[in-house]
Fold:
Amino acid sequence: MEKKIVFSGAQPSGSLTIGNYLGAIKNWVELQDEYDCYYSIVDLHAITVPQVPKDLRSNTLKQLAIYIACGIDPEKSTLFIQSHVPAHTELTWVLNTISYMGQLSRMTQYKEKSRKSEENLNAGLFTYPVLMAADILLYQTDLVPVGEDQKQHLELARDLAIRFNNKYSETFKVPEPLIKEFGARIMSLQDPEAKMSKSDSDENGYILILDDKDTIRRKIKRAVTDSLGVIAYNDEQLGIKNLLDMYSVFSGESIEEIVNRYEGKGYGILKEDLAEVVIEGLSPIQRKYDELSKNKDYLEKIYKSGAEKAEYQAMKTLRKVYRKVGFIPR
Ligand code: AQP
Structure:
């Protein structure tokens, strides 16, 4: 029986955070044996907000090394850079013509990002979810492992697949989201109501996968909590809840076990211990990353063969789409 297909990606719009790791990449690793996985570095998405070209280049390569260091095995999964497969932009154009302005304007990420970038309210930010739908639909994806924040975009990808299939006949598989209960939404350390983001202007809001030990200790120590002074898991104490979530996904212990152990103890202790748990979780990744980042030839080989494999599958779908809409084959 053929394996089901998984697609996911992250933007090289900065260095990856532990939010990206816990909400996405860690789950990608677990899916590799059971599924045929495509994991992309979505650089076309990244330019919807201003990027410095040389930083984008270095973040893209760095991100490839981080994927591998986190445990994505290029022998099992297809790892590629989105802009290397032009079918992504080509399918986006076709999907744009069946996307409704009203639906796109209701996307939460668009509303949030457009608020932040009033002077750069470009059309790419608006059609971002259509590009994401193209990413997913090109590979006839069954499952999309994402963090909670991407659920709405995935719903749009499903709508577009169904709309296209109804208009032109069965073409796309309708994908399903795969969202883990814990780690799906890691919040900012400075504002526990906002998600942790690599492009946050306050670097104390996030922990990077590559942050060194002292930086991790410092950022967790400064994390915003509350004045109740009780270690409990509830929505009145979002800061503590976030720290407990991180503790649980990094250590593998249940929230209940952790809360019981810290009963009657202060926030300071919890933070100190959490920092060590995070450091321990990230250390092997950082060691592997250091090795990989010295080996540019190896990384080049991976992204080149990944692009070839991805392009082969993507073109199969794109040719079908072009035929259905009435384009004459070359
Ligand atoms: N805080 C988070 N908690 C859980 N999952 C998260 N993801 C991102 N932040 C969190 C998941 O990571 C994957 C890749 O995300 P992305 O880089 O493509 O874009 P994003 O969701 O916009 O991530 P950032 O870090 O917030 O990037 P910027 O700051 O550039 O916008 C997705 O699966 C996402 O759910």
Q: What stands out?
A: The chain has two domains: 5-179+296-325, 203-290. The chain has a mean pLDDT of 95. The CA atoms of residues 33 and 227 lie 45 Å apart. The domain at 5-179+296-325 is CATH 3.40.50.620 (Rossmann fold).
